[in-house]
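Morning - nicotinamide-adenine-dinucleotide inputs below, output right after.
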Amino acid sequence: MGSFELIGKHGDHEQVVFCHNKDVGLKAIIAIHNTALGPALGGTRMWNYKTEDEALIDVLRLSKGMSYKAAAAGLNLGGGKAVIIGDPKTQKSEALFRAFGRFVNSLNGRYITAEDVGTTVREMEYVFMETPWVTGIPKAFGGSGDPSPYTAHGVLMGIKASVKEQFKTDSLKGIRIAVQGLGNVGYHLVEYLAKEQAVLTVTDIDAEKTKRVSAQFGAKAVGPDEIISVECDVFSPCALGAVINDTSIRQLKTKVVCGGANNQLAEPRHGDMLREMGILYAPDYVTNAGGLMNVFVELEGYSPDRALDKTIQVYDNLLKVFAIANRDGVGTHTAADRMAEERISVIGKLKQSHQGFSSRPFSTLREVKNR
Ligand code: NAD
């Protein structure tokens, strides 16, 4: 299949940019899915893709996902993503990332990048040498730093909304919550949940982490294979994708699935299955949008308080998703997509008429800061 055919098959992207620099060995693709709401934002993934088609399909899929995530979060951002083809363990260099940064710069803010799988703050510093259109840079440069605490706070709000919907209560006191994965997001989430006096069960494949977190927050520790079948009110995946699959779904003993992990459903049909089983699923990309909200605040001029405040929005966003699911009789994963598509369409249409030259441009990000 040719590249244009592949692009057509994987969504209605606005722009796909192939970036090549022979001297530094750069092969990258930037995909801008939709900018109806604002500049396309999404991280740069570095991965040893086996073929160029595999890289292209990945960037098309990921950038579309970012459009939905930003729209559902209520942010004035579009969806974009970049992939660099190469081994992140052996092929990273200052020159490679600065060359990439120059391509990002050439898009004049239509695409804003950040770190993702295979890239770190260090590489974003190189990108930042060539373009202001990068987020997630260190605090010393006016950046927002580690997004995980904000993601975790958003997940806490997501759990509160789900518990409200499913058990009609505003309190997490005594609610039994099983957390899978105690990394950056999981750790902060457990800390928040302990303060709310939830009854916690935790696990990580790193047994040391499990032991440490369980002791610190008075949580029950179980093995990684046991967590899926723990009898609980909320199962919170904060580790891997595809955790809800044909095998695991039959083992669940919960009434809610709500966590920070990306791509929790192995396939969309698993969302329908959860609905049929009476398990409320809080769609992952709505629940874990706190990190993106944090980055958005960075673009406006960073304030940690404002970022934390923004993540509270996850609560209302999820209640809206649940209402759409109830109204339309569909799974919550379908309802989330509908909510995102509706916002892109409605707000996008508002911008079709010219407002005259006296009005300020809608997007005042970075341009105003004149970085
Ligand atoms: P992380 O790498 O810091 O933590 C993941 C943890 O999960 C690790 O401690 C790992 O040992 C553990 N783990 C892996 N496989 C496991 C298994 N089978 N059972 C139990 N534990 C297992 O990553 P993170 O930043 O905490 O992100 C967690 C998830 O949330 C990922 O899916 C990520 O894509 C998603 N996410 C993170 C953010 C963020 O701000 N960090 C934002 C949005 C989404």
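Note: The domain at 3-66+78-134 is CATH 3.40.50.10860 (Rossmann fold).

O.
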